[in-house]
Write a structure and sequence with these properties.
- The protein has 23 helices and 14 strands.
- The longest helix is centred in the middle third of the chain and has 27 residues.
- It is elongated.
- It binds adenosine-5'-diphosphate and magnesium ion.
- Magnesium ion binds next to helix 14.
């Protein structure tokens, strides 16, 4: 799929000089220039909104920073535009980091609201500063040149701005097919799974906000020198909404959607500005109304945008398997058989007056499968979440491999080698099984955003893919590698989560109701996988409802009822315990 996307971009890169040589009227070249500039802004939103699920109305303000920086500095200080580009990027980065860091820690609708406020305040700032020419803006910018060649107008500018667009698109496609890219693609589905894989979701949210802002600033720099004048109207909230509109209409998740959306909005905008006043008889910005209606219709009938209709007709080629000879990833030292791995000491959780977990203690030795069982509402999931750091404890201590992990976040605990699955499967449905599983190996790689964009990450990428394939084969999922994760049945989905957890190279595996929703055959397959993992030395904590499975595979059981420990022991001991029978049958004995 991704190679395919790269190919499309390369074809576009070849088409651009051909278009430049065609005898098109200058008007159309100018239109293509605007489309290229808008698409560059929209491309940033594809990453931020389409892939990352974060909405910004403030992209026009970042365009404005890029434009005003170069206008002010070239006019007043005679700096070269090639220098002011980088100053503009620097200023954009600083402001994006400030806006991002303040708002992205908060969940929900803070970012859209903050970007509206940001867009408005920058608009009024530009419009009221004497140095920036108030609402008249700055006039008389030079057009871009290399030596004595003017590349700031017409066909040469067309090639220049589309070169930026193509470079940006290629960087984005490369990024999304990488270790940080998979982390970014996980953001939309909430933070819990990504954090459990050791990913700092906050960092990636700030990163994509920054990248989108930088794309916008480059477009602003180009726009300023193309128009040779800047004024606030091009950078207000209305444009911010239009950029978002382009992205949504084109298809938020698609690099090509940015170009389609930008083209459509630009052409429609021009047409409507002439046609609507003629139709209605008075002048005014009526096109805004048409755009609003169109947006509602697109969201209702084509939520994935126009490009999704085109994309449907392209086959999704398989990822080329090029990692078979890559070196294995290093592994962590594992505890010796029988050594204590996990010690849970009197952990307690109160929700207001309810004691959900009441001073529970137990331990797991290396190579053991321990089952945590109990009727519904007994406190199993809460205990699981206290151990994995998803919930904070009211009191008590958790020691993992001799280290106190009581106060660590779920991200740091996973980095220590405690890997988990989820009661409700959490995956990225539109990624392949292999890519989903590779997310588990996130903490075992280190390639960043820049090296991924430039594709200098390939050696590490191959090692990660090899590890993902190895773990999938380890649990008998070898034939599902290239399947879309969202197309899997429940059984294979749960196994995929186990493979993803194994990719962390864990010393302890925590499974939350892995048999829920499985058929009899699938449960047997699961039991076989668990026994095999144990034979390879893995330690497992199994929270499970299914008594047959638990009795079948566990060495030790911990039984909870109403938050308290009912009993502990081997499956045979527990089965013989009258209190356990009573708890499960719900009768007093
Ligand atoms: P189990 O997984 O064994 O079915 P849980 O750990 O989910 O049980 O729940 C134990 C008890 O704690 C239940 O009574 C449940 O209603 C309560 N509980 C769980 N989570 C919360 C929460 N976030 N706020 C308040 N009560 C909760
Ligand atoms: Mg539960």
């Amino acid at each position: 799929m991704l190679l395919n996307k790269q190919l499309h971009i390369v074809l576009l890169a070849l088409a651009v000089p051909v278009i430049a040589l065609l005898p098109l009227p200058d008007f159309w070249i100018a239109q293509l220039n605007y489309i290229g500039l808008y698409a560059l802004v929209s491309l940033g939103l594809v990453l931020l909104t389409g892939v990352g699920g974060l909405t910004s109305f403030g992209q026009a303000a970042f365009v404005g920073i890029g434009a005003y920086t170069t206008a002010y500095l070239t006019l007043n200080f005679g700096l070269s535009p090639w220098v002011t580009l980088f100053i503009g990027l620097g200023l954009t980065a600083i402001s994006a980091l400030i806006v991002g860091v303040i708002t992205l820690r908060m969940s929900g609708h803070y970012l859209p609201l903050a970007t509206i406020a940001w867009g408005l305040s920058l608009y009024y700032l530009m419009g009221n500063l004497d140095a920036l020419g108030k609402y008249d803006g700055l006039l008389g910018l030079k057009s871009l040149s290399v030596g004595s060649i003017d590349i700031g107008q017409g066909r040469l500018f067309f090639v220049l701005c589309w070169a930026f667009l193509i470079a940006g698109a290629l960087a984005l496609v490369n990024l999304l097919d990488s270790r940080p890219g998979r982390a970014i693609r996980s953001l939309k589905g909430g933070t819990q799974m990504a954090e459990a894989m050791g990913i700092s979701t906050f960092r990636y949210k700030v990163t994509i906000f920054l990248i989108a802002a930088l794309f916008a600033a480059v477009a602003g720099w180009l726009l300023a020198h193309f128009q040779r004048t800047v004024n606030p109207s091009a950078f207000g909230l209305k444009m911010g909404i239009e950029y978002l509109f382009m992205t949504v209409v084109g298809g938020v998740g698609y690099v090509w959607g940015a170009i389609v959306g930008a083209g459509l909005v630009k052409l429609l905008d021009d047409y409507l500005q002439v046609a609507l006043p003629a139709l209605i008889g008075t002048s005014g910005s009526y096109e805004v109304i048409v755009f609003g209606v169109a947006l509602v219709l697109v969201l209702k009938y084509l939520p994935d945008g126009l490009w999704s209709v085109v994309a449907r007709h392209f086959p999704k080629p398989r990822r080329e398997v090029n990692w078979l000879h890559a070196p294995d990833l290093p592994v962590r030292a594992k505890p010796a058989m029988g050594e204590p791995v996990l010690v849970v000491d009197k952990i307690r959780k109160q929700f207001g007056g309810l004691v959900a977990v009441n001073d529970i203690s137990f331990g797991i030795a290396a190579g053991q499968i321990v089952g945590l069982i109990g009727p519904n509402g007994a406190g199993k999931s809460t205990t699981f979440n206290l151990i994995t750091g998803v919930l904070s404890k009211t009191s008590g201590q958790v020691t993992f491999r001799g280290q106190d992990v009581s106060d660590l976040s779920s991200r740091d605990i996973s980095r220590q080698g405690m890997a988990r699955t989820f009661q409700h499967v959490k995956m990225i449905a539109d990624m392949t099984v292999l890519e989903n599983v590779a997310m588990g190996a996130y903490t075992r790689g280190r390639s960043g955003v820049l090296s991924s964009m430039l594709r200098t990450n390939q050696a590490e990428e191959q090692r990660l893919m090899k590890e993902a394939q190895r773990q999938l084969e380890r649990i008998g999922m070898g034939e599902y590698l290239h399947e879309q994760a969202g197309n899997l049945a429940m059984g294979p989905q749960r196994l995929m989560e186990i493979a993803r957890a194994l990719c962390c190279d864990p010393a302890l595996l925590l499974l939350d109701e892995p048999a829920a929703g499985l058929r009899h055959k699938e449960k047997q397959a699961l039991a076989a996988v668990l026994r095999q993992l144990q034979s390879e030395g893995m330690s497992i904590l199994l929270v499970e409802h299914d008594m047959d499975l638990v009795m079948d595979v566990c060495d030790q059981l911990v039984v909870m009822e109403f938050g308290t420990l009912l009993t502990r022991g081997t499956p045979a001991e527990v089965q013989a315990n009258p209190a356990v029978r009573a708890a499960y049958l719900g009768t007093e004995h």
